[in-house]
Amino acid sequence: MIEITSRRSAKKERFGTLDTKYASQIAQLEADGVQIKNKRILARLLEKADGQIDVVKQLINERQEKHLKRKEYQHKHRATSPKEGDETISTWKRRREFSADDLDTLKQLRSAGAYGHPKRVLAAFHECNGSIEMTLARIQTEREERVRHRDERVLVRISNIKIES
Q1: Which of 22, 34, 72, 141 is disulfide-compatible with 29, CB 3.0–4.6 A?
Q2: Do 109 and 142 reside in the same domain of the chain?
Q3: Residues 72, 27 within the same domain
Q4: Is 86 among the domain residues?
């Protein structure tokens, strides 16, 4: 754990030195109207471009174009769906909606002690052929398995850190 915090502090120091090293270029970019929420991105781009402002502006434009393309793609594929009646309902909204039976089932599962994401709980319930006891047992075993895998990953990470040292 100490190694992780030392890495984080080293990273913060590195960004601090980049901020001081490229402070004049960052100020020049802000004066030119470049608006980026995270100043660390500007520092990283300046480091990548060896402090050349024109190259950084070009990289920022490329990032913004890429971001706009991604947003257009997401809007195109998420916003429209087949029409139901006169109005269109987005696929994401339809996925979030629950039927009255599902809500009743969820209430029963919650009162029995099954917590988690509602869709996952309902999926486990349906896979267990509608048995609340089997659903609770399945959710508990999945949770224990996730904890076991997490602990294994932590042990591997710790052993790798010790090997590197």
Answers
A1: 34
A2: yes
A3: yes
A4: no
Domain range enclosing 127: 98-164
Q: Are both 102 and 155 inside the same structural domain? A: yes
Tokens for 149, please give them.
Answer: 């895998």
Please tell me whether residues 105 and 144 are part of one structural domain.
yes
Mean pLDDT rounded to a whole number for the chain: 83
Predicted pLDDT at 86: 45
Confidence of residue 145 (pLDDT cuts 50, 70, 90): very high
Q: What spatial distance separates the first Cα and last Cα of the chain, rounded to whole Å?
A: 14
Model confidence, pTM: 0.41
Predicted confidence at residue 155, as pLDDT, reads: 92
For range 89-118, the mean pLDDT: 81
Is there a single domain that holds both residue 110 and residue 72? no
Closest CA to 108 of 131, 90, 91: 131
